Amino acid sequence: MDETIPSLAMSEFGRGRHLPGGKHTWFSGTEEELLDLVREFWDRRQPGAGRGDLNQVVVVPVPPTGFTGTTIEVKESTELLAVCERRQSHEDPYIQVSAMGQVDPPRHAAVVLYSAATLDENDGQRSSDADWEVVCLLAGPVADEPMDPLTMARNFLEKPGGTFAPYTAHDFAESIYYWSRRARRHVPEPTEETS
To answer: Which CATH superfamily is domain 8-183 in?
Structure first.
């Protein structure tokens, strides 16, 4: 392996969220295939949203093949559903709006990784001894799809589950405007009959 590429692993957080058929982007290949893809495109990594360097959070753009996104462009006829959710048991609840409809085909994909030091800052929630862990998969219709404004607020305010980043007012405005016209695909909660 190229010695310039650090050790990589999938975080438990990412593993539990990015499941086929779930509410979040997923990858159809194996975990090792995903990590190989990150290694292949590691030299194209960029600082994560609100970051000024490549030391804490990076976004590695990868080909969208094998990724399934969850973004739906909302129209006047789109049926929307709102529920109260919580990402993890120790985090604050929030209102999640989802949409019924056809998912926009992903034209761009990226993998978000946190450094070991950054994960240690977040209540020490590391899943491995790797230098970097995959925490999020992104796949959408546009390159550089803005982070959800609630996620940005959680990070900026250092709420439970958030990792501080100094977003600008412009970053927040771009995110709010983009997500005011889009929503995540609605995925029904499993029932006893379907689980």
So the answer is: Protein of unknown function (DUF3228), domain 1 (3.30.2310.50)
